[in-house]
Design a protein that fits this description.
globular; about 15% strand; 7 strands; alpha/beta; 7-stranded mixed β-sheet; single chain; about 280 residues
């Protein structure tokens, strides 16, 4: 086993969740583990697809399977099933969730996507094209994250880099339903959501209360104080900040190289999946 590759224990968890190695028709696909390790090498190093080492197979095989799995929703499905397993083991905290956002610099190669089909895609917010814009950090994308109480990722949303955090809060709270292993509706919303002062506006608080979620958000100096503010819960907000740090250890997440937002989001979901495997 080489650096960045799946361990045997991780492969045992993820192998049953992938498409069949031998499809019903046609010839068998290249070894899933080898191809997935190639995707992880790209994710961790941030290198172009053309630089993929030969031990992972041809560049065309690995990259085309990444795009096919993204289009078929394989990455999303694997993440959801890992979360379902964690929920069945009692390892998913549905009481207190955390939200935060981070600006991701976009490489010059991320520009130039075709206008047609630019809107949409799992995790983007409608009306923002390919989630690229200009912020104080330059040409960038903003990655919005929701984490469960233990600091593991639940879901992600992309917007342009200059968008305010509260712009994506509705989409962030309406995504990420975790199916139950047995009977019952999927677990979607927590009882409380914790965010920093960037989420302290009346529309953001109203967004949470309309979903029967209690906000754990400090007020700004120009706002009336909240007498029921849970300071002890807010002190745990560093968990989502540490999550962002762990995700940005993957260089393909720390810098955006993909032209299409859906492809960049697939890289983010792949990184989130690896954090559930640890």
């Amino acid at each position: 086993m080489r650096r960045y590759e799946l361990t045997d224990a991780q492969w045992e968890q993820i192998a049953p969740l992938l498409p069949p190695q031998k499809p019903r028709t046609g010839r068998p696909a290249e070894n899933h583990r080898q191809v997935l390790n190639g995707m992880l090498w790209i994710l961790r190093t941030g290198a172009p697809w053309a630089d993929l080492p030969a031990r992972y197979g041809s560049v065309g095989t690995v990259s085309s399977r990444f795009y096919r799995w993204r289009k078929a929703g394989v990455f999303d499905g694997v993440l959801r099933r890992l979360q379902t397993r964690a929920d069945a083991r009692g390892e998913l905290d549905g009481d207190l969730h955390f939200v935060d956002a981070t600006v991701v610099r976009a490489h010059q190669h991320a520009a130039g996507a075709r206008r047609s089909g630019a809107i949409g895609g799992e995790g983007t917010v409608e009306g923002i094209g390919e989630a690229l814009g200009r912020s104080q950090g330059g040409f960038s994308t903003k990655l919005h994250l929701r984490a469960e109480g233990g600091g593991k990722p639940i879901t992600a949303v992309l917007t342009a880099g200059e968008r305010h955090e509260q712009f994506a809060l509705d989409a962030l709270m309406d995504k990420g339903a975790v199916p139950r292993s047995g009977r019952g509706r999927p677990r979607l919303r927590p009882r409380r959501t914790c965010g920093d002062r960037g989420y302290s506006s009346p529309p953001a608080r109203r967004c949470l209360r309309q979903r029967r979620i209690a906000p754990v958000i400090p007020t700004r100096m120009d706002q009336p104080r909240q007498p029921d503010f849970d300071r002890a819960a807010y002190q745990q907000r560093n968990r989502v900040e540490r999550l962002i740090g762990r995700l940005k250890q993957y260089r393909r997440i720390a810098t955006r190289y993909e032209k299409q937002a859906t492809n960049y989001l697939a890289m983010v979901i792949l990184g989130m999946t690896m954090l559930w495997l640890i």
